Task: structure prediction
Amino acid sequence: MKHTLSVLLQNKPGALSRVTGLFSGRGFNIESLCVAETIDPKVSCLTLVTRGSDAIIEQITKQLHKLIDVIKVSDISEGEYVEREMVLIRVKAESHTRAEVLRVIDIFRGKVVDVSPNSYAVEITGPESKIKAVIDLFRPIGIKEVVRTGTIAMARAPKK
Amino acid sequence: MSKISGAKAFVKCLQEEGVDTIFGFPGGVIIDLYDELANSSIKNLLVRHEQGAVHAADGYARASGKTGVALLTSGPGATNGVTGIATAYMDSIPVVVFTGQVPRALIGNDAFQEVDIVGITRPCTKHNYLVSNPEDLIPTIREAFYLASSGRPGPVLVDLPKDIISSMVDFTEREEIRMRTYQPNAEPHPGQIAKACQAVIEARRPVLYVGGGVILSDSSEELTELAEKTQIPVTMTLMGLGAFPGSNPLSMGMLGMHGSYAANMMVAKSDLLIAVGARFDDRITGRLDKFAPDAKVIHIDIDPTSISKNVVVDIPIVADCKHALTAMNAWFNSQKDVDMTSLAEKYQPWRNQVNEWNEKHPLAYIDEGDIIKPQYVIETIDRLTGGDAIVSTEVGQNQMWTAQFYKFNKPRHLLSSGGLGTMGFGLPAAIGAKMAFPDATVIDIAGDGSIQMNIQELATAKQYNTPVKVAILNNNYLGMVRQWQELFYDKRYAGTVMEVTPDFVELAKAYGAAGLRAKTKSEVEPVIKEALAINDRVVIMDFAIKREECVFPMVPAGGATTEMLLV
Result:
């Protein structure tokens, strides 16, 4: 099962490597990892996508919590949540495919952020499934480069 | 506020923590610290190898319950300490290790004797620090001691750049340490305690499975009260030996790979397993699906990650063992309708069964006339010391025979590397224990292989007059691996024959120690008696034991614990 964990940790040197070291040392897997400062500069938020049985996810959560630099761990995929990922794709855009590329960008509410004589760099935001769909559509046209941010996620506020 | 040097602040912080003894080895970046320590009341033992420093600090901590301290220099000094740190980590021993580091301006430059020791020790410390600002020095040292000794204890490393040590810092008063991200939970949930006690009342075949957590939390008394009140049979892990008196009739000794027949059988057939401060290590459980298959499991542990890691737990109690056991005892005392006598009587058939197993296959060995059996050596040491000595071990057969045949009646009397299984642990750990208890008889039970891994510490013992005793069970083999080769590799003794072993009696003399040797069974007792009478220097006893003796019972790795190879 795929799980999305949100981890608040102290924004200190080495804190991130404690987290990643825990995963490699104990043989847990990381599908994606995204980390940046929160509104409190002393705290970072890390969104981590991993896979495992319930027992493994329980261990991951507990082991993360045991790290001294970790403030809070929540498995936000247990409830309602929103997830987003951004991707930059450089796709071939030659005279006969330009219109098709622009149509796809429009459908996925993307943006062209760089143009060259034979390519567009495109920015798309959405849940992982949308990113995958865009990549699949561009693949036959010709993808030159893909850079993904990995997933960030936030639990939905309780409805009252 | 007065400014003092980082080195002075370091010494003051140690004194604040009540540190009286540290173990270390100097080097270029920590000369300032050595200089300050020399002017202080703190005893600073110069070991002969940094691994020995950390093991000695660890042995000091295991024996005394206080936090052990080691001081190492940067680079190779720090890396040499890593095995000691990992040893303490696996057994949850409170140790603070200080390492020197190159000046901050040189960090990352591949400077002379620079190593990223914080990076290296991240997975084998409870936490570690690189002090990167002078004002962080004092709070970091205080936090390190707090972390090492609280919650589930463990080693904490503090890396000190040379320029931080020599900078001037404000000495601030010590305040209560509060950490936003670290609040270990000592108090058990009352509902869980009631559930656990109810399960005890409903059980027919309960077993207490006791680990090192009981010793670390100093809750032997509470455990003994619970066991005696309920008359539930007890088994202990290697780390738990001494938590409950080995000579108490309820004790079935150690369980697991080299545990007693009765201990393994009673766990396998139990309907309630009460795990206290133990972690269901693979050396205990053997094949997991055959481990206590019919038992409901209660697990008391301060570390939530230990719970349901290997074995699914029915009643988890996240708490300090002392608090949880106290609460369980109080629960039983407060229940007017629970008659403890009839509860104890209800378990009588179960205890009879357990005793029957124990009588059928007690821990035993075959006497072979004048050939020295290692088990006989341990039994004799046990008898002649009244089971009261502090005993450290190395790792392998010597360790398992000690665990089986020395009846540990008190906690903190067995010092052994359980989790990591570090050969070379016993001698420096014994020196550490002797520093904590100068009047105690401290014996390192060793093999001829493992004693050579840190034998250089004999010089440390001589220099600081810590007259420990070393009993070498000498078979000219790396015995435990040889045993596996005998049993599972058609006796192909690849790499386990010690073709060259020093003459330990002569070696003892070279180090200013007494050297004694027994070649026949009849010489064993006189040698031990003589060794116990020598208290002004280290004694090495060299016992020429039967070479191909095996440790039994034995559960082959990955097998079910009920399928034991017996004597």
In short: Residues 448 and 502 of chain B are 9 Å apart (CA to CA). DSSP finds 23 helices and 20 strands in chain B. The two ends of chain B are 70 Å apart (CA to CA). Chain B has a mean pLDDT of 97.
